[in-house]
Amino acid sequence: MTASVVPDPVSGAPQAMSEQHTSVVIDNIQKRELWRFWMLVFFFAALGILVLAPLFIHQVLQAGQALSPGLAHRGLSPRGAFVDRNGEILAADRYFYQVTTTPTHFVDDEERRTVATQLQELADLPFAQTYDLLVTYQYSLFVELAPVISLEAGQRIVDAQAKLEKEVGAGPLLHVDLTPAPKRYYPENTLAAHVVGMMVRLDDDPWPEGFYGLEGYYNNFLRQRDGIGLTAKPDASLTDLPANVRRFLPSVANKDLILTIDRTVQWIIEDELQKGLQRYRAKAGTIIVMNPRTGEILGMANAPTFNPNQLSKEDIGALQNASISAQYEPGSVFKVVTASAVLDTGIITPTQKLTDTGSIVVGTRVILNSSRVAWGPVDMTEALARSLNVITAQWALLLGEDRFYTYVNRFGFGQVTEVDMAGEVYGIYKKPDTEGWSESDLGTNSFGQGLAVTPIQMINAVASIANGGKLMRPYVVGARVTDGKVQVTKPTVKSITMKPETAATLTKILVEVVNEGNSAAGVAGYSIAGKSGTAQIPTAEGYTEDETIVTFVGYAPADDPQFIVLVKMDRPDPSISPWANYTAAPVFAQVARRLFDYYNIPPDAMRLGN
Prior knowledge:
This protein is α+β, with helices and mostly antiparallel strands.
């Protein structure tokens, strides 16, 4: 036997090998090739497992779960429901059927045509669509024929399959699979749309996520799949709640929200907001109703709005909740903050008079009254009723910058209120230690110009007066429910804005302000405390001449406040009126009148026995 010639591993020169060496080398090569072979086998086996495992899980392991409403639909899992404070459903899951199949089960084109025809007859699925899917994916193990069909259509397919199996025992329709699939549903359509929010499925994410409102803020809580539970010790059990509140609870997800929103109050304010916008030809508007003692939001309406069940491209501009995200200059309604500060510090008494000369220079700015009239000596009630900028600026100068901005901060401006809805923004105001601030800002800020607030900040600030000086954290969820356990939201005091006696004095003044200066906001027989505000709109070129944002905030009954209401409208038609006294105030009166009726609040004479 001849010797093999192989290259030297170092020099590369040929060298002879013995037969024994040759045998050893060949043996090593064979072992190495065998090792490579098994590595390839292992690699392709692992690749096959990765590819086929999801299909195996779907087709085999989950086959027995076909009737379980907890089964994920393309990654969907049940989501908790929202009910209002009286148990009315505002958001819930509705169940449909997902239609899928294994195309390789169909042996020929005739079977594909048969099942496409049957699905068109039973579930109104287009023949061409189904047939094309079956042909295109004929070598696949899984294809979705329809993401959702109605429960009624699904039941027709189930009945037809049962009949086919009983009479014939076979048929292509038996290879069609139905899986219950949850889909978010808002039974009130546009009602409280900005409060509840909506669900959005992003293109690169199979899991729909909550956006805006409660859907966004409580997204992680509401998901059955991996949502969080209660964050503290439960306060009660579901059975402890009134029967009407728990009639639709628990949901399939068993993680639900009981809102502070009152469906009837919400309907009232949405109705009056639309009427107000039409009457005064305003471009947009907001109405909020709150319990000033607790911070509970009873209703929150914005226009324009949207239907979370049927979103369109035209809805994009209306999706954000203007109640918590629209920054605007509040105008004269902000004067109640300056008034409370000078009263609380004792700098001014209610009857003390300052002289209105019609104009005042603060820093480099000349400040005028909106009426351009000088009223002479006036007390606080007269100054607020006539909404005098000159007097308010004098109050701010007497306070000084440190005390003025201390009170602005106490009222929550420049901060978020921490309301439990997604999308809240901060208000804005310059502070004395920041670049660009000047004494002129002190003067203009005192009457609500040169700073920005949100509607929720403004109503919450005024609510602290109705609440004896306690600024509450506003909230929309009154309780969370998980596994039959209830965690109640407890009212939270964020700060003390003024002494209780200051709040009581200011309330009496604001009643007179309504009676004397904002009479359009009054309701006969009831004491209402409130203040209007008309603000020009700032632009890059300066303030607009005739376009305004109008606001009225008021609470009632003044001696025992049961509700506080903010009405805000953007750009009412100036040919009708650009002033809050004649636009926002009458809308407030309509809302208050209906709330007195709804809550069965008797007039002051009956209630107080006068």
